[in-house]
Amino acid sequence: MAEILIVGAGAAGLMAAVFASRYGAKVTVLEHGEKAGKKIYITGKGRCNVTNDCTMEEFLREVPRNPRFLYSALSHFSPQDMIALLEENRCPVEVQRGRRAYPASMKASDVTRTLLSLCERQGVRFLYHREVRSLRTETGAAGQRRASGIVLADGTELRGDAVILATGGISYPATGSTGDGYRMAEEAGHTLIPLRPSLIGLCAAEAWPAALQGLSLKNVRLTMRCGKKTLYTELGEMLFTHFGFSGPLILEASCHLPEDGGKAELELDLKPGLTPDQLDARLCRELKNGGRKQARNILQTLMPASLAEVFPALCGWPEDLLCSQVTGAQRESLLRSLKHLPLRISGTRPAEEAVVTRGGVCVKEVDPGTMESRLIRGLYFAGEILDVDAHTGGYNLQIAFSTGALAGAGAAGN
Ligand SMILES: Cc1cc2nc3c(=O)[nH]c(=O)nc-3n(C[C@H](O)[C@H](O)[C@H](O)COP(=O)(O)OP(=O)(O)OC[C@H]3O[C@@H](n4cnc5c(N)ncnc54)[C@H](O)[C@@H]3O)c2cc1C
User: Where do the domains of the chain lie?
Assistant: First the structure.
């Protein structure tokens, strides 16, 4: 019977334990926290958007980097398999808008409870308050390195036939994801793709967005460019915050920030449903009807009041401009600001606040068919530690579950 050590009792580690024990391995999960699945508890605002009930192709489109690496993992254990696993174990699932799947109870704890009870039924041993410090490897006669166990922070050594590193990323470290696995992987000789926050708010380089804190804009188009290259463009909703910008569009755009840290430019189209000509015709009409009214009054017919307050300054209008005084150039600058409002950013919020970590163990050094290291036999990776991350919608948890399932099966020799 193969003895498998799994480091981390998060989404990936729990699923790895389910699969490894299902295939008859003797499994021990080492977790430095006091319980399993601490991050799962806070997912989807406590409701846990556990997966997305979509097809493979749709799924891969939501993964900005290394999507093909996930092909085998998602084929082996798909979103539909995840839904079935929960439902077969008395955790009904509800699929909502955008095919986002949640436990029907809307309680993230039900997902963790289901995975834990499966593990317990299959004899998985959990050791809490055990901080894994390093990997043990041995070199065989043919020069091939093999994982042979782990060393805990107190110096205790545990031996195993295989080790699965499922230590997560560096976001929300209070949930236990302190980035230890990256260090261990690097010490073992793996290449790390630089770690960065993803699905994260963006800080404004100017003061005006903070004044709009709490304002949410729906049905706007956000475009991100680096030089002439369009990195992201999408319709949706965004939010102004005390630091700048957040909300679904901004979080998703943050996944597409340039790889090399190059400067990204963001632009907002406040009226994506109107062509510039249609919008100009409307402006002409409103200004004509406005006569000697303050020109800023017509802005309130075009946008929320708080945005209309700061808009004259954004399009370079004098404070007390009257509708009848608006020149062609001033109308043109309003039109440009409505269709191409620059959102100048100074960077992202810190990685600790990110939903996921971008970067991690280079997937070229991991066999996509088993999740085994190509450098060290018997060493497997699963979950956020890998250099794969996705948009919101249940995709990140599914990546953890699918890679965890494959690593568990692979380590157990199936
Ligand atoms: C606020 C928030 C909301 C989210 N909502 C969603 C959502 O609704 N849907 C979705 O798909 N994704 C969501 N995500 C992303 C998702 O939670 C993660 O992608 C996923 O949990 C990663 O799973 P993992 O098992 O790889 O890592 P983790 O869940 O972070 O688990 C890693 C485990 O390893 C343990 N560990 C680390 N180092 C050591 C060590 N040295 N020794 C022992 N144990 C160690 C940690 O304590 C932890 O338990 C959200 C993330 C956040 C932060």
Answer: 3-197+352-411, 201-348
